[in-house]
Amino acid sequence: MKLPITIRGLLSTLILSALALTTSVATAAEAIIPGERSCFWYRGPHSADPYINVAYPDANVFYWASVFTMPEGSRLEIEGEFPHSRYFSLISYDEGGRPLESLADYLVRPESAAENPFRIGASRDKRKRDYRVEILNRELDESRKEGVFQADSERNVLHAFGGKHNQQILLYRIYLPNADAGITGGVPLPEPVLTLADGTKLRGDKACGQLATQQQLQLKVDAMGIPVAAYRKLINQPGKPDTWPAKVNPQWHIQLDRESLLGIYTGKINPDARRSEGGFFPNPDNNYIRTIVNRRHGPVLVLRGKMPTTPATVEGDSTMSQAQLRYWSICSNQGFANTRVNDCLFDEEVPLDEDGYYTVVVSREADRPRNARRECGLAWLPMADDGDGVFDKDASVVQIRNMLAAPDFPHAIQRVQRDGDIEKVMGEYYPKGFYTVPNIVETAFPCAL
Predict the structure, then answer these.
(1) What was the pLDDT predicted at 281?
(2) For the chain, is the Cβ count within 10 Å smaller at the N or the C terminus?
(3) Within this chain, do residues 182 and 274 fall inside the same structural domain, yes or no?
(4) In-domain check, residue 1
(5) Residues 302-321: pLDDT tens digits?
(6) Quick one: pLDDT at residue 278?
(7) How many domains does the chain have?
(8) Same domain, 278 and 313
């Protein structure tokens, strides 16, 4: 007798088909979806095309996911090397794509004789880079401060509670690998070391077998994107214009819970909601603002604001420097149904004027002003030709990330407590924008090249 196909079961099957690639077909998998993976980091890498593009990845970041179940009485450790990159983290999630706990790079205590290159003032090119983190299958019993750099903190444990399905979800992120380091930051993917209740210690493939790393995902339907039917209803709000919720003067929103995320369309934004719960698998070391844009207001959107200071790491700076943020980016995305990224710009590749202000131009390729290029002092982000990727060919989502704000930087997104206070708190770092047409941009921002 055939069992009925549930929505969750169907979703899990589709996700497995798309994301899960066995090591036995690694050669074929490389031809289909590029990038390194392992039996533990079995799903990924996620990033912009041509990688697995879902849940609004940053185009300059690479994500791997592991789904597993720790055997009763076992102990799991992750052994790895600090990558050559701007940032890395291990983050646990629940079945709804909500973060449970983040373990950011600088918090990790290195192994004996090794050095953590992510600590302020540390050498970034040390050869000895080993670390070990224990994964605990239990709930976190205390609140963690999110998105803000915590000096003098250190821990080598991460809570990854399996929940009602007894399934643990872990994401490994590498932000902005050094220019010559490749997507893994010049080091192997971290390896699981599993100690069973009887003391038997297993590594690599043997550990993966005991952890059942190829099991089906037990995700909620909307963990990685709003269902298409729900999205259709969401964007068709009664009495609203066809450009809703995009406004002539872009309106930004902080990322709160799921109701508040949808509240960008419905207006139901809970000012007391917890941060980073709205989806889709967000990084709690980041705080976000986003706005919905629509080219029916004008084919070109121009955004301008002041750039926070960040470390310069792409070319392999010798030490990790202190700055207002660890990382800043602005991304052009499609809609909440397909959660694809079009492209992103990170801090180091955005040209600044003499006062530290950036100007970012967002448009389709066909509408790109000829001077929207770094040499002319302008940065450019593409809108997709099919807009939100589902229903509205003119709609897009623009999102800004602030990572690990310094405790003394008052204008970070992390300091915004209420959705309506974004501009007041961010001040000159708040992105102001206007819609226009290509020839106006070419006139307003002359370029002698």
Answers:
(1) 86
(2) N
(3) no
(4) no
(5) 999 999 999 999 987 889 99
(6) 62
(7) 2
(8) yes
